[in-house]
Amino acid sequence: MVSKLVKRSTHEAENPHEVTLRESFLSLEPQLRPPFPLTIPTQEQYLNLNRAILYGILCEPHLAKVHIKHLHGIITDGYGYFTSILVRIVNEMYGKLIDSVKRQLVWVTHEMIYVSAIGLDGLLVALLRQIVGGDFGEENLWWCYEMVNLFSSKWDCLLEDAPLILTGALYVFLRLLADHCRVLNVPKIESLRQMEKDFCVRMLREKLFLCLRIGRDLVRLLQDLVQVPEFRAIWKDLLYDPNSFGTEEFMDISQLYNTRTSKWYFLLRINPEMESQLRFLLTHVKFGGQKRYQVWFAKKYLSAPERNGVVVDIVRFLCCAHHPSNDIIHSNIIQRWAVIGWLLKCNLKNYVEANSKLALFYDWLFFNEKVDNVMNIEPGILLMVYSIPKYADITNSLLEFLLILLDNYDLERKEILLRGISTAFHTLLSKGVIQSLDVLTRCDMLSPNLKERLERLLSECSAIKGSLRIPTSHVMSCA
Amino acid sequence: MEPETTFLPLKNIVPAAQNNINAKFILVDKGIAGLEGQYKTCMALAADETAAVHFQLWGDECDAFEAGDILVLTNGIFSTNRNNMVLRAGKRGKVEKVGEFCLAFVETPNLSEIRWGPDPNDPKKFVQLFVVSPLSRIFPPLS
Fold first, then answer.
1. ipTM
2. Is A370 exposed, middle or buried (0-12, 13-18, 19+ CB in 10 A)?
3. If I label A308, which of A57, A67, A390, A430 is the partner at 20 to 30 A Cα–Cα?
4. Which chain B residues are within 8 Å of A283, Cβ to Cβ?
5. pLDDT tens per residue across span A92-140
6. Helix axes A189-206, A229-240, angle to 10 degrees
7. CB contact under 8 A, B104 and A284
């Protein structure tokens, strides 16, 4: 059967969700034209009708207005079911959808905003996740344009109905701008860039109190844009003129440092397919059996050099949004530190490698045991420790990077960073993530200079939070 | 909707002149296509949680699938083709892509790297005689 929703080759099985939608449509087709039946449908009939109308909206653009009127007339659940089946299409099939269906997706989403549909949040998140970072092809840039246009044009509605999702959109477009502002010679990107900038600047200047909800990763994203004049100005004001934003609660950038960024933000730059592959890898693949999977993953997502930037988002996702269970941690399934180690060796551009290391250590800088989760900082220490001795160059480079961060990330608030890193080390020891820091301090494969600086750091940490030499009968060997 | 098929674990496939093998597996690796007569053909390594086997792709199947694809084989056949015991869709079977990546698999035993012979009790059936190689010699594991 030739699909009306997706471009499908003869050797691909049909998506079961598509089959269900189509069957509903075919069974109810005569009832989808006026005059519409006035009988009250049963629950099963109601769901069937929702599916049929959705299929009609997506596949019959010329009749979309008839279908949506019908939908508005029969809704009894605030569009909750309708948005859920729409989300499923986006999550499972977006990449293969026919162009006209994608356009209908945008159209029906505008309609869902008009009616303040239940489940709108989930729908908008699903759509944002389908913008591919580092893809400058026409189709992806078109989708990016439709998304920024949606959020800009529906600003007032969204402020009222889904203000938190507006902050999600800010996260996405700040992140995309970092790539869009670095690229040269891409036609048509200038107007897209301007729309993205306008949206982000408006959010930051007019709704800073909302943007603060993002937390510390807002700082990380803004810093990557500091070369862009509009954002340099915002950055300066955030640091030196916080009152200019008209938000009473905002007094100092350290407030952002102390706010942990919620997990859902990190899903925004990973699409559902990539997410399930990464989660599968970390749940079902044994240590030693990961090579084939890594080859497939790299071929699909990392082969084009301009696409490598996604590694930064993957590292942040792994640290903050994927916390394996204790069973998995104690099993022989491959661990997050090993996956991150592999990604860091993936032939990354310098700034991508640096941003990835920043992503790895970001929560270290501001770690607060009351607010932060040790699982966010575990991959960093384990990668440093387990790289010894075979990949000691990784240990050296990561430790060096952490020390450089401490000294340079925020010259005026170094005491915050020192406190954060001290708490990080203390928590890693007290929770038993590592038994002792001797594995680093006594390691022959660390450069003498680095060892000296580490010792100095650890004594500064001990001064703040008490001794880091927690006596234990198990001393981890340097292996 | 068709009823759910039960899949035969790859470790249980046995050579036969019948096309009755329904299985779900992942394409671990794919070779370079060549010609057999007028048909394009390509060898691949297929595997599930129980075993691996060489899967022979024919015609436009060669370009339709890539390593990492999860496939469902319906009415496939496991028989010799040019001295190799291979699994394939055959004339009456079909193979379709149902997903990617998310399937656990093993590369040993490899049912194509086993010497099969007639069952002494029933010459029409095949049994495993001995293991030629625990792993595929065409697609050795990545080091």
1. 0.96
2. exposed
3. A390
4. none
5. 999 999 999 999 999 999 999 999 999 999 999 999 999 999 999 999 9
6. 20
7. yes
